[in-house]
Amino acid sequence: MTLFWISTVALVFVAILLLVMTLNSKKANNDEQLRDELNKAFYKDRLSELEEETSEGLVENQQDLIDDLKQSLLDDIPQQQEVAKTNVSLMAILLPSAILIVVLTYGMYMHFGGAEKVKNWHEVSANLPELSKKLMAGSAEPMTEDEMQDLTLALRTRLHYQKDDSTGWLLLGRIALANRDVATATDAMENAYRIEPDNADVKLGYAQALMMSQDEMDQNRARSLLTSLIQEEYVDLRVFSLLAFDAFEREDFASAIRYWSVMQRMIGPEDSRYEMLTRSIESAKARMGEPVVKGESVAVEISLSPGVQVPEGAALIVSVHPADGSPMPVAAARYPLGSFPRTVVLDDNNSMMEGRKLSSLEGLVVRVRIDSDGNVATRDGDWYGESQPAKLGETVKVDINQQY
User: Fold this and answer.
1) Cα separation of 41 and 315, whole Å?
2) Which of 178, 228, 285, 291 is the most exposed place for a label (fewest CB within 10 A)?
């Protein structure tokens, strides 16, 4: 910014210098020279006229007329003081002209040049680290639209000077994805991928951008990138989500169900997204023509009674039994102990017997046990609880309050 103002001062100084040179320069045809030339021409013309008039007998005192003509020429020569006055008047033009140049230059820039916008641009660019930190932190208070615009402007400015900053391109691409700006997102993610082609986050971001494209080649490339990410040691949940959504859109419902089922196993029934994935699977099955059994899952709310001692390293075992009291569970699942109260969801994926699914039960009882030694066959000292008889689709409450 300082360099900019120094440059403007230098340009204004050059303009004033050119003005000074113009005012002080002596023209080839200035007033004095022009007057002298005119007087000479007039004198010669008048002499020619006098000679013609004399030859015609019109003039008797030719010499007297010539003397009068010479005297008139002498009277037309300016005095030295007049010349000095002329010089002073030219110098007097310089100061107001210079002031006018400065006022017009900076005045018009302030009005038309966007000085406030330039100032704001520099402030936003300087605030880039703080804005980026707020975005990446994912604080409870979301960023405002103005802050997102400021962050985009700051990122574009930085990337103009640091074109190999893959993190900056990735961040710009994510902002564009959030704003549904497909062109910007694709360009930004492509630059990030060009710089770091082996970065998993960059691959995922680039695949997300390509997936939003209407071009079949872009979508095929996105699928290729997502498929390569599945082969990594750690797979981001969003990879399966994108593959499932893409498969569903292409009416490959079997693949969509497979990907959503993998996601369910990754997050566990206690996650709030589990039910949403269940509904997505049911929707895909319905599109395939398979009957969807309503209420084929059971949600279990688990709580601990006061005084229950929970050993470290224990696990939570939840089993669903027929309402007739059969000890053999139809479905069961094992979870990390976690915190209480908590809710888990069991469905046909947790069925244990071939040919008999959870969805086939008309009535059920849920039993919950805290396994203290990691061996499901032993129960000595374990705490447990059992629900009242219930039906599929209902929320079952179990209070762990007894000990073997």
Assistant:
1) 122
2) 291
Please provide the size of the chain in residues.
404
Count H helices, E strands: the chain?
14, 8
Q: Across the strands, what pairs with 218? A: none
- What is the distance between the alpha carbons of residues 122 and 90, in angstroms, rounded to a whole number? 44
> pLDDT tens, 1-22?
566 678 888 888 888 888 777 7
- Residues in contact with 367: Cβ distance below 8 Å, sequence separation at least 6, in sequence order: 318, 319, 321, 329, 384, 385, 386, 387, 398
In this predicted structure, what is the pLDDT of residue 156?
Answer: 77
Name the strands in the sheet holding 342-346, side by side, starting at the edge strand that comes first in the sequence. Answer: 342-346, 298-304, 395-400
Question: Helix, strand or coil for residue 391?
Answer: coil
What is the distance between the alpha carbons of residues 68 and 50, in angstroms, rounded to a whole number?
12
pTM: 0.48
d(CA 271, CA 331): 19
